[in-house]
Amino acid sequence: MMQNNNIKESIWADGVPQNVKEEMKLNTQDLLLLAVDYAVKSICIPNGFKIEQAIAKLGYFPNIIMKKNDQLYAVAVVPFLYPNYGIISNKVRIDMVKNAKSNNAIPLMAPVGFKSIDEARANAQLALKGDVFEYLCRGFVELTDEENQNLFESYEQFKMF
């Protein structure tokens, strides 16, 4: 009798493969789709948010509009590859904050990172289709319309509502 132990395995052998075709690498749009899906299923819904809209489209903010306790939230999902970190530009952030506030929504950013479970691929910042990833997300950062906002100053700035 076979057991289903839900252990996911990468289709890739250990280490960084040589001569990987570009179509086997996850691009920014692929990472955004995975990041929005992860944020909705693993952060938003388990924390009691009702999803009003989720759109994984490059250059489109907010990616998630959600509600909890009659409060609306607008979330920019920013994917990144370990060891880098994802942020949005000041102009995009300020525009999104103004738009969110005009709709009585709290503007948030959810940086969602990907790290291959293979240490060599992780260190090479390589995201391959068919690989298995650790998701790196500490929660939400509340965005401001300040001229410059440090989006990675401390762990304390990450919130769960």
Explained architecture:
The protein is of the alpha+beta class and 161 residues long. The protein contains three helices and seven strands; from the N terminus they run H-E-E-E-H-E-H-E-E-E. The chain has helices at 28-44, 90-102, 119-123, and strands at residues 50-54, 64-68, 71-81, 105-116, 133-136, 140-142, 158-159. Strands 1, 2, 3, 4, 5, 6 and 7 form a seven-stranded mixed sheet that branches. The longest helix is centred in the N-terminal third of the chain and has 17 residues, at 28-44. It is elongated and about 50 Å long. The relative contact order is 0.20. The model is unreliable at 1-5 (pLDDT under 50).
Q: What attributes does this structure have?
A:
single chain, elongated, 161 residues, alpha+beta
The secondary-structure class comes to alpha+beta
Number of helices: 3
Alpha-carbon distance between the termini?
Answer: 44 Å
Overall form: elongated
- Strand content is 25-35%
User: What gyration radius follows from the Cα positions, in whole Å?
Assistant: 17 Å
User: Quick one: how many beta strands?
Assistant: 7
Which range best describes the helical content: under 10%, 10-25%, 25-40%, 40-55%, 55-70% or over 70%? 10-25%
Q: Taking all residues together, what is the mean pLDDT?
A: 89
Q: pLDDT under 50 segments (min length 5)? A: 1-5
